[in-house]
Amino acid sequence: MKRFLITFLLIVNIVTARAQLTVYNSNESWSRFALQPETLEPFMHSDTCLVFVSNRYIHPQSLRFVDEFLDTASLKYFFLEKIDGKWNVYKENTLQEAMQHLPVKKDIVVYAEGMGKIFTSNVERAQLMSSQYNVNVVMFDYASINTTYKPSKNFKFARNNASLSAGQYLSLLHEFRDAKQRGEEWISGVKLSTFYHSMGNIILEQMMRHHDISSINGEPFVDNLVINAACVPSRGHAEWVEQIKFAKQVYVHYNRRDLQLKGAHFLTMRKQLGEKSGKKMRAENAVYINFHDMVGWQHSYFMNFPYNEFRLSPAMVAYFSRLFNGQGISSNEATSLLATQKQPNARM
Length: 348
Prior knowledge:
- This protein is of the alpha/beta class.
- 36% of the residues lie in helices and 20% in strands.
- It has a ten-stranded mixed sheet, sandwiched between helices. Strands 3-4 form a two-stranded antiparallel ribbon.
- The relative contact order is 0.11.
- Keywords: Hydrolase, Signal.
């Protein structure tokens, strides 16, 4: 019965996700985005702005100018500003050029999403994080779905692309570390956090396991590193998590009833880290937070989304606000902060 219920809920979830993706990939949605000529400078008339670092192919003359395939040859840097309901997208030569356009002295979150996001849906998620937590968001935008593929093929497509993106993500971290060492104005005096959701954690895992991180892994330059609802195997995760020295604090969020991760568990036949960490297998340098009693079946429980009835409790908002603004939270503090009664909206 339990297996049947999980299968049924997964089917409902997939249908809902594909319906949302159809909206994000519509001509109407894409018409809200305009890639600007490279000679044009941002107007800087809006506080609604983001930085995107993408490894997708770019087609400047197309309505869908950011496509759905991976380009492992180069990273592209974009500054986005929203004016009168439309996004102006400016291609920049370097991360530094893009970051200089963001509001100064806001804490920075480098955000890697999971499966199923095209460029337009990633923009929405980055904007929600920026507005709800008052931070500057840098979205690492990799190809995590192809709108012409079936779900089973997309699962493999997203996992493979996340793995292939690890080297480029490491290059991005190099740029942040170098900017901190140089004392660049846009990063000086602010907190820097990295956030990985779902399959976005494959990027981190593969970077730690298969790339030479020695050049960034000396003194910590990241304040909070957040492993959220991780779609990576739980077994053996301590081996690579304990190698993380470039972050002052590491947090692992899990929920044993997470519906999407139940599906990943079923497809891979391996328990996922975002389901259950296992106390005997935990990394010694990480703080583990169990969100089960607060979120029920939810998978994306770090923000409030307009298409989801689930809403974060005030305690959860306070917790994530502290995380995204680079404040350290001990295990006891997190337990105390989140020690509220089971939330009535935790059901799916």
